[in-house]
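Final report, results section. Input specification for complex C-07:
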Amino acid sequence: MSDLADTAPAVPSPILAEPRPRVAAALADDAQLVAACRRGEARAMEMLYHQYKRRVFGMAHRIVGASDAEEVAQEVFVRVFRALDKFRGDSALSTWIYRLTVNAALSHLAKRGRRQEVSDETLGEMPAPPAVERDSGLAARIEAALGQLPAGYRAILVLHDVEGLSHEECAAILECRVGTCKSQLHKARARMRELLTPSIGART
Amino acid sequence: MSCERIQEKLTAYLDGELAGQDGSVVRGHLRECATCRQAASDEAALRDGLRSLPPVDPPPSLWAGVQAQLAAAEVADAKRPAWRRALARWAPSAPRFAAGALVAAAAIAVLWWRTQRAPDDAPGPDRAIATPAPAPAPAPVPEPGPPPPRGDITAELAAEPARQTEAYGDAAEELLALATEVRGTWAAEQQTAFDARLSELRGQIDRAPEGRPRQKAWRELIRYLQGAIVRDEIALAGGVP
Amino acid sequence: MKAAGCLVLALALVKTASAQPKNTGLVERARLEVAPGGRPIKQLTIENPLGDVKIEGYDGQSIMIETTKTAPDEDALDRLRVSLIPNPDGTVRILTTADGGKEVKTLARAAVKIDLVVRAPRDARIDAAVSAGKLEVINMDAGGELDTASGPISVRNIAGELSTHSISGTTTIAQAFGSVDAQTIASDVELDTIGGERLVASVSRGKIAGRRVRARDVQLTTTEGKITLEAEAPLRGRMVIASLRGDVDVKLRRHGPVTVRVRAARLDLGSSLGAARPGPDGWVEGHLGVKPQAQAAIVELRSRYGFVQFAVIE
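Structure output:
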């Protein structure tokens, strides 16, 4: 049930325009899972949790930072399970859960005030899986730069670029127009490039 | 097309969203312009870097925390409907009994109940009630593990304290409706005293952990309301017949 | 943790479990004795949401517990637990619960039952909570706190401070020699031979009936439901018998002077109070005996929408 593993795309050529693979919304499976969770089936709830834990926790982690990520993720899952009855199925379950996550993370930040995330802290508490060690230099720099972005940019970057969602999905999650989504993404990436310049090209 | 315009389109281009001629225009520009090529290369590197960020694994305590909060929230739920009903009854019925001061006072009371209830939506403070009493030595009371199937005895037993509390809440609610009637006959300072005491008792209920302590707090409220309604204790204290 | 040591020993020696098939399923009975570990047992807490509890005081030092578990099958029986938690401070807790099953098979609550019969030292204070089962306490000297949801409460021959609470279980208290406080929401309270300092009973929807009540401070309140009381008025005592919608019927036996104040939709004060008439404040006041103001007991009767009847038993 590793959500990221089975959706990780083959890295597209940086220059050639290729359609990005998207997270396939397994609507039928979701409906069954939701129904089972509504019936209070413990296994279904656990399955749903494991299916979404990395996405929810990862988003929370990258938007609010390491120290508050668990709190936010917990809040999100509690809301998910408590509000499943209200989930009407007119959007994909993942969209709905992402929306709850983004909203929870952003409102958490708003509550916490405009305190900027300390990037050292973010890096210090980042787990470093051995599989990505080869790339850890760039990954760490990207995480650090992410921490310095305005929260809204962080959200769109994480949704679109980290999670690999389409603009349509991002728009549904962020409850904005697709065009807004695109321009936000463009601005966010531009800001990131500035933060990472000049060293970004030094990738492996 | 200027470099600026091209760079605006870069994001869409890199994401494969520029079809046909638009794509071709950008591609053509990139072949000739080193600056834009660098920008495109950077953005692509960034995008790929973002896409291959390692997943962040949540700590194992996350699931336990979710379950504990869910349990707490379910328990907290059980009494909420009583309050919703109490509010509904208290609010619209107030104008029927008296005009002027009473209506205003009732509005204050309604406001007060509502603000008092609000924190319940965030199950945080109630977290403690999800944890049962200290585990007994020979056969420990089970921690709130995965929620049991509905209709199972463990689920029913877990829900029972909250259900009982709700019954007390319902009884209090009926008395509150009656209190609205008599309250109008009291002097202003008696009404204030009544509201203050009500607020105090309400606070006690909120602070008491679910189960017998909270039921006890409800019973105290019920007794107080009965004293006010049936025995006219408030009116008598103010010297009003 | 001496107490715990003693407890475990007694449990191992005395437990005699026998499983026998019955029409309803399986019944398992067990007996165990909890001997005090050093200190006498001062407080006994019992929480049994799964069946009846009967507590009987006796003159010994240990607690004897007889559990009867009823379940449809062996698996269900295995899920029923009775826990004992002895504390070195002289308190003992008995809890019943149902474990989560190993399999997804659900077990209906109505299918199982745990009944407890407990013999306890008379001077232990009782704190017991029962859900739909009966809660019965007999011959205890240190009072206690008794709760049920819908199960009836029955207390007989009790001293010390007693308080009982039930949502919809009929509460019967007889021969109480300490203060009594009984509260129900939707069930009756029956009181017989209450002799403590204070008697407080309140009911939202249900009757209160008391006889042979002799307490200095009596407060009976119902929102809806009749109150019937046959009581003695002690010197300088105070009685407030009040209902919103229910009738109030009080028969008083008196030894000294009594002041009676009544406010009701309708009233019948019999002949004893003579020509008592409502005053300007709406109260009807009358005096019995020679020195009304000095040592008089005050009896206040009220029913906003009901009928108040008062009589003196000579």
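Chains A and C do not touch (no CB pair under 8 Å). Chain A has a mean pLDDT of 72. This concludes the modelling results for the funded period.
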